[in-house]
Amino acid sequence: MNLNPFWSMSANTSRKQRSDEEQSGQGEPRSSPARLPFGKKQLPPIPKNATPITKPASTGTPVQSANGTHASYGPFYLEYSLLAEFTLVIKQKLPGIYVQPSYKSALMWFGVIFIRHGLYQDGVFKFTVYIPDNYPDGECPKLVFDIPVFHPLVDPVSGELDVRRAFTKWRRNHNHIWQVLMYARTIFYKINTTEPLNPEAAVLYEKDVHLFKSKVVDSVKLCNSHLFDQPKIDDPYAISFSPWNPAVHEEAKERMFTYKRRPEDHHKGTHVSGLSWVKPGSTQPFSKEDGPPQS
Amino acid sequence: MASMVANGNRDGQSLVLKGVDPETCMIVFKNHWAQVVKILEKHDPLRSSSNLPSLSVINLSAGSSGGTRFGPIPGDEASAVQNYVEHMLFLLMEEECGQAGAMGPILEFVVMENVMERLFVWSLRREFTDDMKLEQLKMYEMLVGQAHQPLLHHKPILRPLMMLLSSCSGTAMSQVEAELVLLLNQLCCVLAKDPSILELFFHTSEDQGATNFLIFSLLIPFIHREGTVGQQARDALLLIMSLSAENERVAKHVAENTFFCPVLATGLSGLYSSLPTKLEVPNEEWHCLHKEDWLQMPSLVQFLNSLEFCNAVIQVAHPDIRNQLVAYIYNGFLVPVLAPALHKLTLEEVMTTTAYLDLFLRSVSEPALLQTFLSFILLHQHDNVHILDTLVSRINTPFQLGTVSLALFRTLIGLYCEDVMLQLILRYLIPCNHMMLSQRRVVRERDCYSVSAAKILALTPSCCSPDHSPPPLRQLDSILFSKGAETPNSNGNDTKESKSFLEEGDGSGNSCTIGSEIYLDVSYLHYLYDARMSISSCIRACQVWSAAYDGEDPPPEKFQPGVLEDPGLKSRQTQVALKRVPQPLVPRPRPCPPPSTDLPSIPQLELEWDDSYDACPVQTAESPVESKPLQPPVEPPQHIQEMRKTAIMLVKGSYIEENEFQDDVMVYDLVAKKDSRDVELAKLKSKTPESEETQTDSAEVPLKNGLSLTLPTSLMPENSKSSSGTKAKGQTDCNSNLQNNTTTTTAAAELGDDLLAQYEELIRTLDTEAGGKQFKTDGELKKPAIPLAEEDEEEEEMDFTSFSAETPEPEKLHSPFGKFCSGSAGRSQSVPFTGPFVSVLLSRMENMLSNSLHVNLLLTGILAQLAAYPQPLLRSFLLNTNLVFQPTVRSLYQVLATVKHQIEELAASRKDFPELITAAQHWLLARETSFMAADKSGSRHSTHGEAGRLLRSSPTPKPKAISLDRTDVFATVLFTEFLKEMAAIAQEHSILSYIPMEE
Questions:
Q1: In degrees, to the nearest 5, what angle opens at C-alpha A41 toward C-alphas A38 and A45?
Q2: In chain B, N or C: fewer CB atoms in 10 Å?
């Protein structure tokens, strides 16, 4: 599995940061996510001035605070920020990770992660990502496994992954959701036991790896046995599994494998085509060698 | 003979023939023929049987005029022959093929007995009148069209047909012409279906010693004909053209031995000359020729037919023909006719030509032809000024010309052509001089959090905030002034976001609904949808481009000042010129405009972004002393005053903030100085050109060019002809000949002299044939070049006289623009400059409040079009509000901020402003609705006509309580909408430009 070097670096630094903060006593109180009632979350009103905060350097523009105009467009900015995040995820081609924003809200993404080797081999873990609605200026997104996997960093009750240890402070422009997903994948390959959300798992891993392993195998089995369950959240775009049914899946599989050739054919059909007679490497118009001008 | 065709009893006969056995038919046929032969031989002086050696000697033209030859043929005998022949032809037509494609017995008999040829000779022997020709043509038309077996493979049938055809050339009677073209068309159809006959057509005509490919030559005179005849001829020619793509021989013949291409191209010139030189403009908002407009103008319809034909020929013909035609269009129409027309003396004429050019560009679709038009616009220089620069400078003219020019650029930008965008904008952005060095990486940065969109929308004037709008207008969606696409389909997955917006929070479980409590501007969704459409189609189109234009490719370092002046360009142009048949080569102008050489060089930055308006960069305070004596000038003519007013306005608008020019007087002074300097220059030029020549090399160039330009241009038609002659002997290098001395030119001309003579002859016959109406002979064709010389002089004079107290003449207005010389290639790149086009757009944009609604619609439309381009250089320049530009570079955002400021001031000073805004919104709403309705009934318009949809000259709703003169109010509404449009484009870019197309 190829780890993205960029990310692993940033993960390391953030971990370092965290320990630095701890030393200086500024570590945020780590509340157990289990106590966070997602369901009853009160949506804070969109701030009056929803203009994303820009770099302090860019001043001079008359910023109209308390102008209703901005607030009206706030949701659009949020929506597009999330869409941009989503396209970034697509671009990363994270191995074994699939996500899909929910139908009802771009702030909630459904995902599934396939573990292909290591202790958690053959694990298929469904999860949900919750993004704060003041994204990207709020806290880091939460990632909650549908079934609490047996893992030192996964809360055994709520199933929430301890994401914050990797992203102590969510920094816009630096942190992206794909990094959270990547992090969720990494924990299954590289076990970290410091400050666990599941102390039992941590202790076992340190003291009795064999027992830990067997617990993990049980946990993987449990998760996989619930694979075909109805999605926990009722949403048209929720990820659901069903046994292989040739009538349904064969055709889809076929399409997935033939998809690659399609885009080209597609835009051959549509007659939107630009023109260029510029020779590559030149900035002169009509610099292409003679011969039939082509479109 | 073919009267049965006219009588229309053919069908009855064929019914009778059904079921009759072939042998009986054969016997009947032979009997008839025996009877005919009896009569034929009775009148044949030679009494020869089937062989007719005399035939090839017969002088056809004598036959048609000479009347009876061997004594009169009695009428009863003639009609007897005719009756027999009618029956025989039916039998022949109805005969089926023999076994395995062999000839049927009747056909075999016809071939063996040489029936058709003998019949043709028989008709020659009688009086060969037009009526006779008509009959024979109809006979063959029927045979060719309806025979069940292929007939044309057989020489004894083909030969008399060809003789008949050649006897019909130069015929005068329109019915004969119509029938001839119909038959030719049919022959071409047969050829297209069965190219194997082609060889026979060539051979047959060789026997005759006439032109090689008769049916083709006969069609040429009808190329530009109106109506059905012309259409049929063009269709037939197109069939031959597509044949030429596969058949080298046809291609070679057409390109080398016929006048097809010159006739086509010069025909365009001829047709162009009959177009109205001044258009009746229906109303102030009119800005381009729509189909409804040109359908009312027969001459324009005819021109477009021919242009469309050229387009079709280029599409299907062999590359040789295509290249030749394209070259003739360039050198025979664009350069000698359209270029001078674009530089006519009155505003109306120039405006009309511009509208024509726009229409032509919209009518042409073949890349090769588009390339011809575009290279004319981008590279051709008229009076040392690139056509493009002239066109750009006209955007700023205050009259209809400015509006029409804007529409032209909307068309140009909508072509997604790299070369156009390169010349207009990108070349100025490539060096990245317009931004701070540290900012280069920002160019490619992605605006993940819609920061730019937010900043753009934050410019919304407070009076236009959606919260202030009255309930019915809160959604504002109908004011959407662009595209008018359907509202996002609520089932489409594209609109996931829209739904999540509109949906109230369901309060259940973990779902997080965004913004449920906030009023949302629904129209913004439409803008997003439109932005998505336009950006994705633009991205698709630009895949053929050569570079990414992202600040790295092409590398900015490579195109730093000085290097941009690519030495390869000249040779490039030469190559282009060579490719397109000799044309006078003009030495490239120096990078420095001549005026600045004899005046103290000045930092051009102060006024750099709107100096495209003026002829030359405006000077700063240090005035040249020698200009003093000329002041104070006599009251300048009105157009100068007008210019000043605009200039002052521009300067005021843009520089108040910088505090660089605090009072109008100073600016006025500047303009005046510039004017006086012009005068002085003109004086200098007219008085002592020689001294100047020796002193400043660069100043001499344009003058000399002006002369050397006009001379060869007047020779142009001949030159191109000579080239067609010499071309047969291989591509010549007439180019250099032309450039240097006339002796070689004449030599070259002599080379092709006889072909030239033939050509002239042809044109002349065409002229008479076409009713003497459509075609100009060479002499006339030269005409456009002559006024050119005069115009040149006149301009010189005009500059000089422009200060004498005179009655204001609007036509003189064009001279300052025509002499606009800070040309695209000319400007030194050391001063950050984003190009004259951007400058002029932004300066007009800055004047939004005083622009008419229609101008603003066009302006915002063009800017939105530009913003949809995915190239990071362009995108970051227009949309990235974080990018830090050089202090002298004006950004769109700055301009928008200025406009907002103006609006806020205006709104604060007027109590009734909100009401007026509401009225304007209602008015625009009603207008939009009426267009939507019209659109639904009518067909969709071209892709790049978004704003045009609003501007079409269809009835507009009656303004309620607000006059269109309140440009400030309308501009305010439009401004607000434009902000949304741009913000939506910025937002969509943050998504679309980063999705890899392949996946």
A1: 145
A2: C
Kindly report, residue by residue over B209-243, the tens digit of the pLDDT. Answer: 444 688 888 888 898 888 899 999 999 999 999 99
- Parent domain of A214: 73-232
Largest Cα separation within chain B, whole Å, is 112
Residue ranges of A 247-266 with Cβ closer than 8 A to chain B: 260, 263
Judge residue B77's burial from the number of C-beta atoms within 10 Å of its C-beta, 0-12 exposed, 13-18 middle, 19 or more buried: middle
Q: Which residue is closest to B542 within chain A, CA to CA? A: A274
Nearest to B338 by CA among B376, B366, B383: B376
Q: What is the domain count for chain A? A: 1
Domain holding B204, by residue range, is: 20-41+73-246
Based on the fold, state whether residues B377 and B272 are members of the same structural domain: yes
Chain B residue numbers with beta carbons less than 8 Å from the beta carbon of A287 are 568, 572
Query: Which chain B residues have a beta carbon less than 8 Å from that of A52?
Result: 449-451, 454
A198: distance to nearest CA of chain B, Å?
24
pLDDT band at B579 (very low <50, low <70, confident <90, very high): very low
Question: What's the whole-model pTM score?
Answer: 0.69
Which of B425, B494, B497 best probes binding to A when mutated, by most A CB atoms within 10 angstroms? B497
pLDDT in tens, A21-72: 333 333 333 333 333 333 333 333 333 333 333 333 333 333 333 333 456 7
B756 lies in some domain: no
Cβ-nearest to A286 among B505, B517, B576: B576
Cα angle, residue A105 at apex, residues A100 and A110 outer, rounded to 5°: 25
- Between the ranges A91-95, B5-9, B497-501, B892-896, where is the mean pLDDT highest? B892-896
Counted domains in chain B: 3
CATH number at residue A79: 3.10.110.10
Using a CB-CB cut-off of 8 Å, the residues of chain B touching A285 are 374-375, 378-379, 419-420, 422-423
Same domain, B205 and B270: no
Q: Quote the CA–CA distance of B562 and B560 in Å, as a whole number.
A: 6
Report, as an integer, the average pLDDT of B398-416. 93
Q: Model ipTM?
A: 0.74
Please state, in angstroms and rounded to a whole number, the distance separating the CA atoms of residues B108 and B154: 10
- Give yes or no: residues B202 and B262 share one domain: no
Asked if A238 reaches chain B (Cβ–Cβ under 8 Å), the answer is no
Nearest CA in chain A to B317: A292
